Amino acid sequence: MSSSTTEKPKSGFSSSLDRFFEITARGSNIATEIRGGLVIFITMAYIIILNPLILGFAPDVAGNVMGGGEPNLGAIGAATALTAGVMTILFGLIARLPFALAAGLGINSFLAVSVVKNVTWQEAMGLVVIDGLIIVLLASTGLRRMIFNAVPAQLKTAITVGIGLFIAFIGLVDSGFVRSTGLGAPPVGLGVGGSIQGIPTIVFIVGVILIGILVARKVKAAILIGLIATTVLAVILQLIWPVGSMGVPGTDGYNAYGWNLAIPALPTSVVAVPDLSLVGSFSFGAFDRIGILAALMLVFTLVFTNFFDAMGTMTGLAKQANLADAKGNFKRLQPALIVEGIGAIAGGATSTSSNTVYIESASGIGSGARTGLATVVTGILFLLAMFFTPLTQIVPLEVGAAALVIVGAMMMGQVVDIDWKDFSAAFPAFLAIIVMPLTYSIANGIGVGFISWVIIRSFSGKAKEISPLLWIVAAGFALYFVSGPIQQLLGG
User: Fold this and answer.
1) Could you tell me which of 256, 248, 267 has the C-alpha nearest to residue 201?
2) Confidence of residue 122 (pLDDT cuts 50, 70, 90)
3) What is the mean pLDDT of residues 182-205?
4) Would you call the peptide bond into 186 cis, given omega within 30 degrees of 0 as the criterion?
């Protein structure tokens, strides 16, 4: 059946859209692209709820949470939606691919758990801006692809898996499912006194099971539906059994069975003017606070995490959409990499963490989306979502923790791509994976993986297979691990 009479746009505007986005040429139509954009938004909208939960409660080195002395989840949610909307529209118009952008999971957790222990939130976001500038430079010069090719595929996979395990562990801890025992051995245990107790932790368990079932049944908006349903359950249970807040461990007001930070309650309003007070709240003072070497290593970790996650995601999405060749190359790759780097700059400038391409874009591709028009639709919906951010403030941390465990499980799935029969490759991959959660640091896992890879592979007779770039990266990490003693020797 000919498509010339059924798919060719008739009006001037439709014809212009078709030519600009190559809609017909890619075997799609405007209606399919709009539907695909809506599906992508539905599957990604959870980030407007989850990002504030990850970033909003962690105190920085000065003892302040993002935005000041009290958590401001509404402002983080509004900025998250704004940045995702603008960057997704920009990507759709310039790269013209059906890939949407939002605050990257993994990097936001790294910032909240590791980076702000050493710097303020404004300084942390300044490091993210620098991360983005470096990525744009690497993409513009072609170095990004060269470096990507230099790192072995097994290490790339191990880093993704390790971040997944790390995210899942954060979720288990935030929910109270795993807690410190206060003992030397074991350092952590199950719940309180070895048993699951407290309504908040039960809500977390229900959330994990519910979202897990929805994902297993391939429900497109699984995470978002699970977050909403579990939040409703949390609000109802809090109304019936008001357990209050957990408080601070070790203080008189500590309640081991309470909600971790946020107590679920009905909002006073649903629609509000977006609070964009966090936009532009960043600085470059980290270099003065912690020193040039330590700050550069944090930037390096951000660049590396952004770098490989985005490249792998875009390659996979392009293949799914039948837009890539056998090597993973696709049209408009260069502008796609540049705009993705700009997403990191925008994320730091708006205090939302680096924005990157989301694998959830696969849901829209599965619905038929093939062009940037779908991405533009998704971006517009994100901008509209800015006006509904009061809803994000009723979501307790335990509900967000359930989503972290599910996302971690999804990322862990790539572990099958590691060749476990080749121990010279499997052992460094294993170290990279296991060190991340056990040391509560993505940077440590990446560094141990790189160093062990070049050493073990070299002494296994495979030194010629190691790129000189990898040796440089490993040496940089070795320097990072001994930076403390070096600074002491230098009088720092």
Assistant:
1) 256
2) very high
3) 79
4) yes
Amino acid letter at 154? Q
What separation in angstroms does the CA of 267 have from each of 101, 236, 390?
A: 28, 13, 7
Residue 477 burial by Cβ neighbours in a 10 Å radius (0-12, 13-18, 19+): buried
> Which tokens hold the place of 23?
């809609």
Structure tokens belonging to residue 266:
């009905």
For residues 282-310, give the mean pLDDT: 85
Report the pLDDT averaged over residues 265-272: 80
| b/e map 313-337, b = 16+ CB within 10 Å | bbbbbbeebebbeeeeebbebebbb
Number of C-beta neighbours around residue 263 at 10 A: 18
Strand-pair partners of 192: 195
- The tokens describing 144, both together, are 């990004």
Phi, psi (deg, nearest 5) at residue 448: -60, -40
Residues 6+ apart with CB under 8 A from 79: 276, 278, 279, 350, 351, 352
Residue type, 221: A
Q: How far is C-alpha 60 from the geometric centre of its chain's CA atoms?
A: 19
Closest CA to 450 of 480, 405, 420: 480
Looking at residue 214, its amino acid is L
Nearest to 133, CA basis, from 345, 363, 322, 353: 345
Q: Which residue has the higher pLDDT, 179 or 181?
A: 179
CA angle 202, 166, 106 (to 5 degrees): 105
> Is the separation of the CB atoms in 429 and 158 below 8 Å?
yes
User: Cα–Cα–Cα angle for 274, 275, 280, nearest 5°?
Assistant: 120
Q: Assign 268 a pLDDT band (cuts: 50, 70, 90).
A: confident
Q: For position 338, what pLDDT does the model report?
A: 93
Per-residue pLDDT of 398-417, as tens digits, reads 887 888 788 788 878 888 88
Task: Find out whether 112 and 121 touch, Cβ atoms under 8 Å.
Answer: no
Structure tokens at 183: 């003992």
Question: In whole angstroms, what is the distance from residue 83 CA to residue 353 CA?
Answer: 10
The whole-angstrom separation of Cα 167 and Cα 157 is 15
Are the C-beta atoms of 44 and 88 separated by less than 8 Å?
no
